[in-house]
Amino acid sequence: MAEGVAQAAAGAARRVKLGSLNVSKVCLGTMTFGSMSNQDTAFEILDRFIELGGNFIDTAEMYPVPVKAEYAGESEYIIGRWLKARAGRIKRDEIVIASKVSGPRAAAGPFVVANRARALGHPAGDGNVAADFSPGQLRQSCEASLARLGIECLDLFQLHWPERHVPKWGAGQYVKEEEEADEGRDLQGFDSVVSTIGALIAEGKVKEWGISNETSYGVAQACEAAKRNGVRPPVSIQNDFSLCYRIFESELAESCSTKHYNIGLIAYGVLNGGALSGKYLRGGATASSRFNFCSGFQPRYHSDRANAAIAEYMALADKHGMTLAALAQAWAFSRFYLSCVIIGATSTAQLEENCKSAYVDLSPEILAEIDQIHVRHRNPNLEN
């Protein structure tokens, strides 16, 4: 086995516990399956991920991106077809599958709800029903994901974003007007949401559950609601986290600590949507690279402020003879509060490079230099 492949396998083979789940620290993200990656390429990536020793696959009912009505849900369908095609080679209980239910106040809401009905063989209605976390919608979302994936139980069922207003996706400020607007919305509340998830667990449709794009307040409320309702607490939080967005390491790291609510961070955006690979600054991006393929998508990841920080991190990686992607991902893996890093890949070669980062240990000197850059460019992904 070549050294690079051996390192990729060593990285993918690392495991961590999320509640009852034993998952690879490298989690394969699939939000480009069905858009940037066709089914054949997706199958190759999934096959290679399992061959390398990974077992944790993350998806969502609204994927792929960019989110469009004509193919929302296709990422789950592709994974389901792959599971069926590999049924003789791969045991279902050896794979950990996570998916996410869409919350309210997003453009995807109405057609995501209609797609759930179609997946379950029900009339789709007029397509104007907004997504929410009502008991009926949570249940329908879970059951539709199970149908698309062709499985009986979701290993990890995640709330993709909160139903209430929170700063997310680059926003840095809590807005009073949005809080006041929430008072006029039919929000379900933590107890209702947790009780519904508890019922899905009791029925064997969900093993564990998690939150995403959450705040310290949301972590505490979700966990306390679980206690009140006799439901197992969330085991994970999937939040944006990278060299350019280190917000998690203050209050959220405390809330989620093993000494407190014991919730594992599943980090997405560790490569800033690919910007922390350096390919956009070095001129290596192609027409199929994310920000060229999805014009206007995730502007926080490649703003002027973010690029200024990325240029310094790239120089640091060059100085130490490593790729910027390896530096960025290895730094994330070095955080004590992190459980898993979601990696994206549009080829098996890219997958192997990303898996290798879980094998890399950064020296104290490199970590100190990273912090020095952070002081000069603190959280440049913040848009306000």
Full CATH superfamily name? NADP-dependent oxidoreductase domain
Number of contiguous helices: 15
Strand order of the largest sheet: 3-4-5-6-7-8-9-10
Note the run of SSEs as H and E: HEEEHEHEHHEHHEHEHEHHHHEHH
Q: How many strands, which pairing sense, and closed or not: the largest β-sheet? A: 8 strands, parallel, barrel
- Number of strand segments: 10
For the record, the CATH class is: Alpha Beta
Instruction: Choose one word for the global shape.
Output: globular
* Span between termini: 48 Å
What is the strand content? 5-15%
Please provide a written account of the structure.
InterPro entries: AKR_Detox_Biosynth, NAD(P)_OxRdtase_dom_sf, NADP_OxRdtase_dom. Pfam families: Aldo_ket_red. This is NADP-dependent oxidoreductase domain-containing protein. Helices cover 41% and strands 13% of the residues. It starts with a helix and ends in an 8-residue tail after the last helix. It has an eight-stranded parallel barrel, surrounded by five helices. Strands 1-2 form a two-stranded antiparallel ribbon. It has one domain: TIM Barrel (Alpha-Beta Barrel), CATH 3.20.20. The protein has helices spanning 3-13, 39-52, 74-85, 109-119, 135-149, 176-182, 190-202, 216-229, 251-255, 279-282, 290-293, 304-319, 324-333, 348-356, 364-376, and strands spanning 15-18, 21-24, 26-29, 56-58, 96-101, 154-159, 206-212, 236-240, 264-268, 338-343.
Structural features:
384 residues; TIM Barrel; eight-stranded parallel barrel; globular; NADP-dependent oxidoreductase domain-containing protein; NAD(P)_OxRdtase_dom_sf; AKR_Detox_Biosynth; NADP_OxRdtase_dom
